[in-house]
Structure formats: C-alpha cells, structure tokens
Amino acid sequence: CCPERGGRAVGLDSWAELGCSDPHRAVDRFKAGVEALQADREAGRAAAFEVIRRGGAEDGAAELLVRICVAISLADGKFASSERAMLGLICASLNLPPEAIDEAQAVLFT
Q1: Which of 13, 15, 33, 59 has the least C-beta neighbours within 10 A?
Q2: pTM of the full predicted structure?
C-alpha cells in the first residue's frame, strides 16, 4: 500500500474516532471555515485556532488531531515546509511539542 492511501485510511478512521459520522457535515464545516478565512483572514484564522483548541481539549484528542493533519498533509506524497510550519502552530495551540508532528508521522506509517 502506498503512503498516500495509508494516510488517508488512517485519517478516515480518525474522523470516526472524533465522532464525525456524517462526512457531509465535516465538508460543510470546512467550507464555512474557508469562507470565514476569505472574508477576513485574521478573524477566520483566530476562529479556526479556537476550534482547534476546543477540539483538542479532551484526553488524547490533541494527538489525534495532529495525526489527522499529518495524514492530510501527506496525502499528495509530500510534506511541504509550509504544511510543517502550520502544523507547528497547531501543536503550539494544543500545548504539544513540535516533536508531536514526527511522532504522528511515525504512528501513521508503522
């Protein structure tokens, strides 16, 4: 199995762990977030990080969220420096060390 498929499969399993049983609802939430960013970049970004902080509050959720983000970042087979930098900001907002990115990547592909 290629890393792209493996990452996607883990990502889908992770969505189920988060209780997001309706993919249409997840897509609608994503689109609303994109629209907020387009309307006002700073306000949209602040709102997105607030959702990330709230979503990572439950035990184990922060690490799961980072795994999902890593899987999405690797979906094209590349891990761009801009993606890694954003994941660093996400880790910081979740009070996780930057090493959580590498740990998540290791979990996805072992």
Answers
A1: 59
A2: 0.71
